[in-house]
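Hi everyone, sorry if this is the wrong subforum. Our group has a chain we'd like a structural model of before ordering constructs, and none of us has done structure prediction before. Sequence below.
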Amino acid sequence: MTATTFSVPDMTCGHCEKTVRNALSEALPGADITIDLAAQRVTIDGDAATAEGVMRDVGYSPERVG
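Answer:
Right subforum, don't worry. Here is the predicted structure as tokens:
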């Protein structure tokens, strides 16, 4: 799979990062997840549609950027 990057402007703190990472890890076990909190970006090498849905389910507003 190819990596997909999301802008997550409402991911603003360490707690947000942990919530997103845990939700993605649970929904997509084994996926490579990179989070850049300062840039408010999440990159995942896995099912992009599932990743986007999971982030929305835990209260965030991801938008695909790559």
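For your construct planning: The first strand starts at residue 4 and ends at 7. The helical segments are 14-27, 48-57.
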